[in-house]
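STRUCTURE:
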């Protein structure tokens, strides 16, 4: 292998569309030897205010101001000039150079979307140059555990206005023997949920992440519908399949209180924690993500203290894949798990550092998509590379979601007897699973 052929020859970005029909970036990196790496960048609508900056044009004359031509220009002109000639095999060196070149704390000058597109395209080019799949390039020889999928089959909140206060209701097929069976279980339950909704005269339209978005009278009705679908599919809730929630609580946090409009109630942090505790005691819920607001650190301590032994308490907006906020969470014991989103921080290297730190602290990690997605499958490979344990990629519906799941099916097949699906072992230390 001629290492000189791994030098970056060209960097090209273009404006493409994401799954919501909004602009985003695709970046193509070509190496001297002709190897190419292509990556596209997702976009969130339910975003934490501490996330790295997604650079948009603000030009109301095109795409309602959401164009990304400024970010594209930053890649094609400024970033390209800085990294052409560098070796794609030196990911951390390049990522650090990009961070320093941007020069801001939140990547607001060049745009986290511009920087991430380049970072991921370089990694893909390097993996292709090395002749190995991305999960192997990033994770080495030990990269063989498949993640447990957390499938968002009923959407609400900002992902499906008019449905529920809570943003996501997920199924977690822990009882599956392998990843393929887990996806089968998820798909079957999803289709029976359609039947349940149709039979009850409820809307079967879908939200941003492929989950159904019926107008419901209260939040717990979503749980009851999913449990009915699970039963019809022939699976046992709490044994074959568990439930997970992403309330996205920052979206209904007002003046220090939690306002559940579907319930007609306003709760303090302590009352919100008790609300969740009641659900956990009555339903097979194994994970709650963003159960409290991104600035309610005191409330998070209460939530973790009350439910941390029973369920996975996941911080997303609270941490935004930022190692400084993660360190605070570890010190203050605000959760036992972290959601990982590449575009929240803006480089692959920083993302890997956060995963490593969280795992060192004994936390579980969940590699996640965004509501505005592309067909890019990087997160599928990443979940295997770092032995994340879990992946969130939406419902078993819509091409941009299925691309991730189908990629994992191919990886499992490729790994053959070395493939390992953790199932309930992914929650080895939770009372809810042990019981």
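SEQUENCE:
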């Amino acid at each position: 292998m001629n290492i000189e052929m791994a030098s970056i020859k060209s960097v090209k970005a273009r404006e493409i569309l994401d799954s919501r029909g909004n602009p985003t970036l695709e970046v193509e990196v070509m190496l001297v030897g002709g190897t190419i790496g292509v990556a596209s960048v997702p976009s969130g609508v339910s975003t934490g205010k501490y996330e790295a900056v997604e650079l948009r044009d603000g030009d109301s004359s095109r795409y309602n101001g959401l164009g990304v031509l400024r970010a594209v220009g930053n890649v094609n002109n400024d970033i390209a000039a800085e990294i052409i000639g560098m070796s794609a095999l030196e990911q951390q060196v390049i990522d650090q150079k990009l961070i320093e070149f941007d020069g801001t704390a939140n990547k607001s000058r060049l745009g986290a979307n511009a920087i991430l597109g380049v970072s991921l395209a370089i990694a893909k080019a390097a993996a292709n140059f090395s002749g190995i799949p991305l999960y192997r390039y990033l994770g080495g020889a030990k990269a063989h555990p498949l993640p447990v999928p957390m499938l968002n089959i009923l959407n609400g909140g900002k992902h499906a206005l008019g449905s529920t206060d809570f943003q996501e209701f997920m199924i977690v097929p822990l009882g599956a023997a392998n990843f393929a069976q887990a996806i089968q279980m998820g798909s079957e339950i999803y289709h029976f949920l359609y039947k349940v909704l149709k039979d009850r005269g409820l809307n079967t339209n879908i939200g941003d992440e492929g989950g159904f978005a019926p107008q419901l009278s209260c939040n717990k009705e979503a749980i009851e519908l999913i449990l009915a679908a699970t039963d019809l599919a022939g699976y046992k809730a709490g044994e074959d399949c568990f439930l997970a929630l992403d309330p996205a609580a920052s979206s209904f946090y007002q003046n220090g209180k939690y306002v559940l409009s579907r319930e007609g109630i306003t709760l303090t942090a302590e009352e919100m924690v008790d609300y969740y505790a009641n659900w956990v005691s009555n339903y097979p819920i194994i994970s709650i993500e963003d159960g409290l607001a991104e600035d309610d650190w005191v409330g998070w301590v209460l939530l973790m203290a009350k439910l941390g032994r029973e369920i996975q308490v996941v911080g997303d907006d609270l941490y935004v894949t930022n190692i400084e906020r993660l360190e605070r969470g570890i010190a203050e014991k605000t959760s036992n798990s972290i959601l990982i989103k590449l575009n929240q921080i803006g480089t692959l290297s920083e993302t890997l550092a956060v995963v490593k730190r969280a795992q060192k602290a004994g936390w579980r990690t969940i590699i996640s998509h965004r509501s505005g997605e592309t067909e890019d499958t990087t997160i599928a490979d990443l979940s295997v590379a770092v032995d994340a344990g879990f992946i969130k990629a939406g419902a078993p519906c819509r091409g941009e979601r299925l691309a991730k799941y189908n990629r994992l099916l191919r990886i499992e097949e490729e790994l053959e007897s070395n493939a390992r699906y953790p199932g309930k072992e992914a929650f080895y230390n939770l009372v809810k699973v042990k019981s």
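REMARK: The chain is about 40% helix and 15% strand.
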